[in-house]
Automatic annotation (TrEMBL):
Gene3D superfamilies reported for this sequence: Uracil-DNA glycosylase-like domain
Record PANTHER family: URACIL-DNA GLYCOSYLASE SUPERFAMILY PROTEIN
Protein name, UniProt field: Uracil-DNA glycosylase family protein
Pfam families cross-referenced by the UniProt entry: UDG (PF03167)
Species this protein is from: Rufibacter sediminis
Domain Uracil-DNA glycosylase-like: residue ranges: 26-183
SMART domains xrefs: UDG, UreE_C
């Protein structure tokens, strides 16, 4: 049962030896959730607060979705399940990739307990490759451009990080075309 699995995940030490800041699994889920948000892994602010998307990326993501913080953090409706649950540390060009052990070990156990998910948002390359496999395109941009091909089950998105401002400027079609449709789909997915 999900009520038994979530405490196990939150107490996980699987990658402890590889996490410079120690394990702190961050996720939210309930069996009733209809929307699932899959990003890469928590960043430093989320590691400190224990609240997923508790940073500038989260503000932009909530804006894209057209959700208030209360709606976004209502785990009865929205499951927030990163590819890996702990902050992986920093590398030469930003955060390190999510630890693969987490996805391989926990996702197969967790996802069957989320039977009501109607839409999964795949945020960033790691989430897209993990869930789409060979159906992901060669680049994040190509995958996001083909977003309609993955509906109704998945909708790939770029990461809303402030570090991606250049991507948003180079691809204005995303906020002009995808975001309004994304908001409509999210509103149709969540209970009124």
């Amino acid at each position: 049962m999900l009520e038994e699995l979530l405490p196990q995940i939150r107490a996980c030490q699987l990658c402890a030896a590889h996490l410079p800041h120690g394990p702190r699994p961050v996720l939210r889920a309930a069996a009733s959730a209809r929307l699932m948000i899959v990003g890469q892994a928590p960043g430093t602010k989320v590691h400190a607060s224990g609240i997923p998307w508790d940073d500038q990326s989260g503000k932009r993501l909530r804006s894209w979705l057209g959700l208030t913080p209360d709606e976004f953090y209502n785990e009865e409706h929205v499951a927030i399940i990163p590819t890996a649950f702990c902050y992986p540390g920093t590398g030469p060009s930003g955060d390190l990739p999510p630890r693969p052990e987490c996805f391989q070990h926990w996702h197969p156990q967790l996802l069957p307990f989320l039977p009501n998910i109607q839409l999964t948002l795949l945020i960033g390359t790691y989430a897209q490759r993990a869930f789409l496999g060979k159906n992901a395109k060669a680049t994040l941009t190509q995958t996001v451009e083909a977003w309609q091909d993955y509906l109704p089950r998945y909708l790939p998105l770029p990461h809303p990080s402030p570090r991606n401002i250049a991507w948003f400027k180079r691809h204005p079609w995303f906020e002009r075309e995808v975001v309004p449709t994304l908001q409509e789909i999210v509103q149709a997915t969540l209970p009124g």
